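Why LARGE xylosyl- and glucuronyltransferase 2? Reviewers of the renewal asked for a concrete example.
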Amino acid sequence: MDIGCFFLFPSHLLTFADGRSLLVSPCLSDQQELRLTERDATELRVQEVEEENRQLRLQLSQSQAAAAQVQYGSYGNAQWAASADPGPEDGENTAEERANRTDCPQRPMVERCELIHVACVCAGHNASRDVVTLVKSILFHRRNPLHFHFITDAVAHQILSSLFQSWMVPSVQVSFYDAEELKSNVAWIPNKHYSGIYGLMKLTLTKALPSNLTKVIVLDTDITFATDIAELWAIFRKFTDKQAIGLVENQSDWYLGNLWKNHKPWPALGRGFNTGVILLLLERLRRIGWEQMWRLTAERELMSMLSTSLADQDIFNAFIKQNPVLVHQLPCFWNVQLSDHTRSEQCYTEVSDLKVIHWNSPKKLRVKNKHVEFFRNLYLTFLEYDGNLLRRELFGCPSQPSADSLRLQNALEELDEDDQCYDFRRERIALHRLHLYFLQYQYIPAEDDTDVTLVAQLSIDRLQMLEAICNHWEGPISLALYMSDAEAQQFLRYAQASDVLKHRKNIGYHIVYKEGQFYPVNLLRNIALRQANTPYVFLTDVDFLPMYGLYSYLRKSIVQLDLAHTKNALVVPAFETLRYRLSFPKSKAELLSMLDMGTLYTFRYHVWTKGHAPTNYAKWRTATTAYKVEWEADFEPYVVVRRDCPEYDQRFVGFGWNKVSHIMELDAQEYDFVVLPNAFMIHMPHAPSFDISKFRSSSSYRHCLTTLKEEFHQDLSRKYGAAALKYLTAERNI
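Here is what the prediction returned.
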């Protein structure tokens, strides 16, 4: 008989060989005590500290709740009150047991290191962003290994697979399932809900997920966790031998049918249930023939209802109405529903009561709720939270490192921390978290295979250039943006508010999250280059405005100069202005006039002439046909090439040699540099970057850049043999 833990048993001291002592809980048996090692003692101490932190958070939330003066009211179906889970506290203990109990740790809610499975349906760019915030909130609170199961379309799969691969969170597994293969199971169901066919996919989980997976937590993408997901997982233990589905009651009057005249919802038990958070005992559902049962229910109801209004939720509720014994009602704080006209505030009396927040209104953060400001702040906290901080290992739950993690670890071990250029070398092998296609993207391939993508990279201080570039370039654009999580949200708000940007769907925005002390310029260029979807790319920088009509001019030049069958790199001559306000030239003749008047200059004429001198501006002034130029040391033009060109060398970070090295490799691969006679681009003025300031002020920075250049030359020689000797000779002759 389990009599609990009482004060009748005194605590006693356990002493280790080195003289340290530990106060041992009276809850431990003699046999357990003998097995207590120093590691066990450390783990117990960590658990005590975590419990202290939990109590501090509880006290803080209670004080916040008292200040908010939230009024509590009873809520829920009376007929379901007995089956509702009372939560993880004292609901199952008698008054006598609670009075006799000490603060000895209870049996854990879930087994230590038990793997928790979470499933989610995700389709498209917007839902992929929502999933990231959901995952952050789960990772922030979790203490157990996790396995995420994502049913995705092609877009979400590309975004989330690259995100998790680059995130490298320990003790997290991710599996993907193709939504396309499941559509036939639900495509026959007419659905009016804004989620479309993907809003019905949760019905297919017993079929979609592995047959050996016995239970799973199913979540909508618009969910935010305010507690450890293990608490929710533990509720599976409270299911009766008949129950297979855990749900929170719907907190609106939708299924009561009284929202408006002639409102006829699908059948439901009382107020019905919300399917934003579901506990599914997959094994039990498969055993009772769930797949056939929900289909029969849907077919029967559709004869009169004609379509679903709330997607899978309507079918779940109709099924439960016929099979109430299968449902386990969860306390409503496991799904606080923030749609308009809900009674969600009756789910909590204190902030500490909150477990899961569900933004289930199309209005999302603009929903009406008396405490919406608090919920919005909680959501924004995870939205802008630095995801790199969630890469922490779980204490006592060693995980098998991924192949990328092992490669990174081995590469780091090979570095010499005493090397003066250690930070540069470390940056080269860093694996940055990556969110591809951060905003809606749609590209329709051109029919003539001459399309060209403008490729560039930027940080948040260059955002103001985007609208101007879009006004000058109507073709597809691929941008890598180096930002923190918070800056990425600033960019999102900026893009959504911009009349220019919000209507452009042919721009791929790829967020590379900040990490380390250098600006990884060539990594950013490579990411933007890899995501170009056209046969040709225009490799430029975001500080340049292309001439009006350059997009169509380049496409014609690609055909005329036969880029498909030649190794040509088309050079777009670069100019600059020192004026922040410029009347942009509409033609080559107008540009030459401004050049003569001193309004414009050839690019870097004052500080770095040799970077663009081989372009031969004197010849360009009168040229009417394209002309070839030879490579010279430090040449760094902006070029149009085939997409399969060499990538940039990522050892060069910050300022210096990042483009020079790339042009050198193009030359080593026998590309011809061909200057376009009627193309130009103009560099707009801006404040000096942080990296150029470091280059100018730090002798060690300049020393390391010289070292990296020498190593690049050596690598080039090994790669291209004697042909690469000219680069070393040219460098020595400068």
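The chain has 24 helices and 25 strands. This is the kind of structural detail the renewal will allow us to pursue systematically.
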